[in-house]
Amino acid sequence: MPGFHKLSLEERLKIIKEFSDLTKGEVEQLKGTGLEIEQADRMIENIIGTIEVPLGVATNFLINGTDRIVPMATEESSVVAAASNAARLARKLGGFTAEVSETVMIGQIQVCNVSDMKAAKNAILENTAEILRIANDQDPVLVKFGGGAKDLEVRRIESPAGEMLIIHILVDCRDAMGANAVNTMAEAVAPFIEELSGGKVYLRIISNLAERRIAKAKAIFSKEDLGEDAVDGIMKAYSFAAGDPFRCATHNKGIMNGVSAVVLATGNDTRAIEAGAHAYAAYKGSYSPLTSYEKNEEGDLVGTIELPVAVGLIGGATAVHPVAKACIKILGVKTASELGEVLAAVGLAQNFAALYALSTVGIQRGHMRLHARNIAVMAGAPPELVEKVAERLADEEKVRLDRAKEIVKELTKV
Ligand code: NAD
């Protein structure tokens, strides 16, 4: 969608409305009348208001052969532009291929004070079918959709409070994120597990390390577009993250700039995804980048990403927030796994864009040009002058409040 960013707000909304078949009401909700205070009052406690976050769309995403417009809710400038630009570059060699392994979440049951660990473990494993039956009785709807508790794992862990028996119930959550479903099941099976183990159950809760709900994506960026130096620069940037946790934290933060923005736009749980991503990054030993890069035989850059995607289209805020519902419609995903594929593609795009800029011109040039608008507003520029002030600041390479105030004063002088 070349030139989309240069269109007026009304022109952009017209295109999105047509592409995604939005109703007039949905368009109005996108414009900011989205979440009524009465709806918010039913979502959390002690409501006193709502807070708006900018909602943009990343363009150019081709994922598994399907064109997608990707809604992103974020307060940070440059994120949407960077993702769109990376997606444009990825299109040339086929866009993103992405897949999600399965939709299984883990419910943990912590059993302490077990006198015979081996016997307890055997008793629990022997009664797997009964434990799964109790779990599945809690959620006939999930079972009807082909999901539900499918298997058990029993682990022994060392802890500061001594050895514990940890039971994992593996629940296929289909199109739900699954925390409520899994937590209900974990609580329901706990008394039977206490009986079988002779121990005492304490915690019964989902794990956000969703290692059985992994999305992978891949894209190839052409050497002709990037230039050989940039390909080498990105490889060096990736190696820096792979070798240094200080850099790696920021590398993965950049990935989550994109991922969390889509998670928020679709009404999903940003903390669940963030916790899962960082835990997964550290899961195999040292804290590692969620993306990796290599050069193929042609010298093109091949980027891949792997991260857990505990998101849903059913339940949570996704089901009740009108703007989240409109965002799902814009995205056009029909299953939670399709949403997971989008998250992986966006994470890879975001990371590629950051490494490309960082290893060549730096990110501040583009970033400050966009940030200049915020500085102009802070300096008191009236709406009709914001663009003009921002442009002057960027051209002068002085994106600073003091300079912005001077320019505003000069332009508003009568
Ligand atoms: P939910 O309970 O609102 O909805 C899920 C239910 O929808 C399923 O249990 C099932 O009965 C039903 N359903 C209907 N059609 C379905 C389909 N096609 N596929 C799957 N289920 C279908 O929501 P949830 O996903 O169980 O829980 C998500 C919420 O839990 C989020 O709001 C999250 O913030 C919150 N939460 C998260 C954590 C955590 O991440 N640690 C802990 C507690 C709560």
Give a brief description.
By secondary structure, the protein is an alpha+beta fold.
SSE inventory with pairings:
Blueprint: H1 9-20, H2 24-33, H3 37-43, E1 55-63, E2 66-73, H4 79-91, E3 96-100, E4 104-112, H5 117-126, H6 128-137, H7 140-144, E5 148-157, E6 164-172, H8 179-197, E7 200-207, E8 214-221, H9 223-226, H10 228-243, H11 245-265, H12 270-283, E9 291-295, E10 301-308, H13 322-331, H14 336-358, H15 364-378, H16 386-395, H17 401-412
Antiparallel strand pairs: 1-2, 3-8, 4-6, 4-7, 5-6, 8-10, 9-10
Helix pairs in contact: 4-14, 6-8, 10-11, 10-14, 11-12, 11-14, 15-16, 16-17
Bound molecules: nicotinamide-adenine-dinucleotide.
Structure commentary:
The protein has helices at residues 9-20, 24-33, 37-43, 79-91, 117-126, 128-137, 140-144, 179-197, 223-226, 228-243, 245-265, 270-283, 322-331, 336-358, 364-378, 386-395, 401-412, and strands at residues 55-63, 66-73, 96-100, 104-112, 148-157, 164-172, 200-207, 214-221, 291-295, 301-308. The protein has 414 residues and is α+β, with helices and mostly antiparallel strands. It has a four-stranded antiparallel beta sheet. The chain has a four-stranded antiparallel beta sheet with strand order 5-6-4-7. Strands 1-2 form a two-stranded antiparallel sheet. Helix 15 packs across helix 16 (386-395). It is globular. The model has no long low-confidence stretch (mean pLDDT 95). It binds nicotinamide-adenine-dinucleotide.
